Amino acid sequence: MSSKERKMRVGLKLPIPAREDTFSKPMPLPLPLPLPVPPSGGGNMQAAVNVPSCKLPCARLQEVVLEDLQKISTLGCGSSGKVYKVKHVRTGKIYALKIIQEKHELAVRKQIMREMEILRRANSPHIVQCYGIFDRGGEISFVLEYMDGGTLAHVLQAHKKIPEPYLAEVARQVLKGLLYLHQNKIVHRDIKPSNLLINKKKEIKIADFGVSTVLAHTLAQCNSFVGTCAYMSPERFDPDGYGGKYDGCSADIWSLGLSLLECAIGRFPCLSPGQKADWPTLMMAICLGDPPSPPPDASPEFQSFIRSCLQKDALLRHTAHRLLSHPFLKKYEEQTCDLSPLLQSLRL
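Structure tokens predicted for mitogen-activated protein kinase kinase (348 residues):
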């Protein structure tokens, strides 16, 4: 379907949620209609199909008991619950405790528990580690690795813009995490600056797997639709308008590219400064507008990297494996990038 035809027809079948007052607030999203199983040919789709079947082995970690945790402070609040900084009273080790406070139906809780089990089994230095999952009377809790540097969103708020050498290091570490996930048939579906965590050891890790799901051998469409729509790829907004082809791995790459571009220019790339960031506006910008472009004063390597991520056609986006050898990352590969300056202005 040509770009002109797509602009005349946006086959959206999703109800529009209530307007939010500020862009920073999470947007409640509805469940999508069932979508067809993607074909097995071409581009990133074929790359995903060719990944060998792999069940994540359970990471050998000592389970943490909720009763042994003592709350120290609140790290963050959201529509789904709160995150606390906690201390293990016996060992003194610090963790993050995420609590989903709203009591959901049993089927929803089971789905959340299944998806969090993915995180508990993940064993990558680029993925936030999970040390325990609990369902107590309908209240679900996760004991997570504590990242003492905050999020990439905090860094961006403090610095307004992030220089390319730092973005190259962020991209390199996040892509290694995504490569691990995608090779194990896992898609994240909510890559954004607030889900990329940093610690004082200069490690960047992917967090918030409440929206992750394991791809079946058939690579069937993910059935849940949770996440921030601002960072969703065009085909997630409008599956029919993009031929019904959905590749969750490719959608993660779009979200990463959008996040990095936001860090480079200091604002959300798909909207003009001051433009209202509600659901209809985002949908129109992402589905009908041209992909956001990197700034003209950016290096050719960074411009190429961003364009490799932000292709409207999901099959044309580069994979995590391919992006790890991109000239933008190679340009800074031999330079030791110390992320400490990014953390100095934060209140840690």
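Confidence is low (pLDDT under 50) at residues 7-54, 211-227.
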